[in-house]
Amino acid sequence: MKNTIFEKEKLTALFEKLSTSSTILIFGHKSPDGDSIGSTLALHHYLAAKGITSQVIHPDGFPNFLKWMKGTDSILCFDKNPSEVKELIQRAEVIFNLDYNEQSRVGRELGELLTKSEATKVMIDHHQQPDDFANFTFSDTRSCSTCQLVYEFIEANDDLRLISSEMGSCLYSGILTDTGSFRFSSVTEKTHQIAAQLIAAGVNHSAIHEAIYDVNTPERLKLLGYTLNNKLEVLPEIKTAIISLTKQELVKHNTQKGYTEGFVNMALSMLGIDVAVFVKEDDKMVKISFRSKGEIPVNEFSKMYFNGGGHINAAGGASQLSVEETVNKIKKELPAFLSQLTQ
Ligand code: 5GP
Ligand code: MN
Predict the structure, then answer these.
(1) Whose atoms come closest to the Cα of 125: which ligand?
(2) Is 289 in the pocket of ligand 1 (CB under 6 A)?
(3) How far does the centroid of ligand 2 lie from the alpha carbon of residue 178, in Å?
C-alpha cells in the first residue's frame, strides 16, 4: 500500500525549493536514538545522491553503538559547536525536522532558534499529535519509525534505485531499533517488505544487529546486574515495574552514554507486567522512560504529569523532583490513570 502522506504536488513544491536553496539543514532530536541518527543520515545521503548538499545537526552526542553509520563524522552537535550551528540556522533556507513533532524536542535554546528561523520547515515524523510548525508536514502516527517514512519519501519520488547499502543500513537501523527488532504492533507487512528491499540493496542485517546489540562491556552488564538486583520495584496490583538510578549510582558504575539503553524493556519483559518505567537522574534533570503493552497510552500519562509525550507504548518525560520523589509521584498517580482506562 502506498503511503498517502507524500502527495505529488507537495513533493514537487519541496524539491523546487530545495533546488534553489544553498543552506539545507537536517535536525534530529535530543538524546538521539537509532531512528533519529538513521533517518537524518539516510536523508542526507539521499539528497546527496540527488546532487543536493545538506548538513545534519543534532542537539547532543550519541552512543558509540551508532557511530559506525556512514556520515556520523560529519554530524554537527549543538552542544560542541554552538556558534557554528547558530550561524548555519541564520543562513538556512530549508530546515528538516526528523523524528520529532515539536521544535522543543531539540532542547530549549536550539528550539527557540528554530522557532525564530524563517527557513522553510519540513517535518517527517511518526509521533502522536504533531505541532503545526512546518510548511511541509509529513506525519504518519501509525508508522513504526521515521526511517520507514524516509524510505517511503524516497519511494514516492521514484528514487528507490538510489538507495545504496550505506543509506540502506541507516534506514534499517532506525526501523530495527524503533520496532524493538520488528516486534512492536507498529510493524506491518510493508515494514518487512522495506527490510527485504534494503537487504536486496546490500544491507547486511546480521552485521547491523551485532553492531547495535552486541556491544556490552563488563561495566554495562554489572550496572544492569546491580539495577535488577537492587533497584527493580514490582507493583503487581497495577501490573507495573519501576526501575530507577541516581546520578551517584551511575557515576559509581562508570556509566557511559547509552549504557542504560534497553533497561526499561527488561522490566517490561516480565510476565504479568503491562507498564514499565525507568527513572534516571541526568546532569540537569530527572529523565523518565515509559513503556507499555496493549492499549495503555503511556504518552498521555507522561504528558499529564511529566511534560512529556511520545508513542502509545513508548514515551518519555522529565521531572524537576528528585529520583525518589519522582518514583513516589508515579506510584501516586499511575493507579488512578490506569483504572480510568478500563472504565
Ligand atoms: P525514550 O524512553 O527511549 O527516551 O523515549 C521513548 C519515546 O518517547 C521516543 O519516541 C521519544 O521520542 C519520546 N520522548 C522521550 N522523551 C520525551 C519528552 O520529554 N517529550 C516528548 N514529547 N517525547 C519524548
Ligand atoms: Mn522514531
Answers:
(1) 2
(2) yes
(3) 6
User: Which of 123, 242, 259, 289 to probe ligand 1 with, by most ligand atoms within 8 A of CB?
Assistant: 289
Dist CA 145 CA 168 (whole Å): 14
- In this prediction the pTM is 0.90
Running along the chain, 343 residues long, what does each successive block of 10 average in pLDDT?
Answer: 87 98 98 96 98 98 92 97 98 98 96 98 96 98 97 98 98 96 94 98 98 93 97 98 98 91 94 98 94 95 96 94 98 98 84
CA–CA separation, 23 vs 247, rounded Å?
40
d(CA 195, CA 210): 17
Structural domains of the chain in order of their starting residue, each with its CATH number: 8-213 (3.90.1640.10), 218-341 (3.10.310.30)
Q: Which residue has the cell 513533532?
A: 101
Tell me the DSSP string of 62-111.
Answer: --GGGTTSTTGGG-EETTT-HHHHHHHHHH-SEEEEES-SSGGGG-HHHH
Cβ of residue 310 lying under 6 Å from some atom of ligand 1: yes
Residue type, 116: K
The residue to mutate among 33, 243, 292, 313, having the most atoms of ligand 1 within 8 angstroms of its beta carbon, is: 33
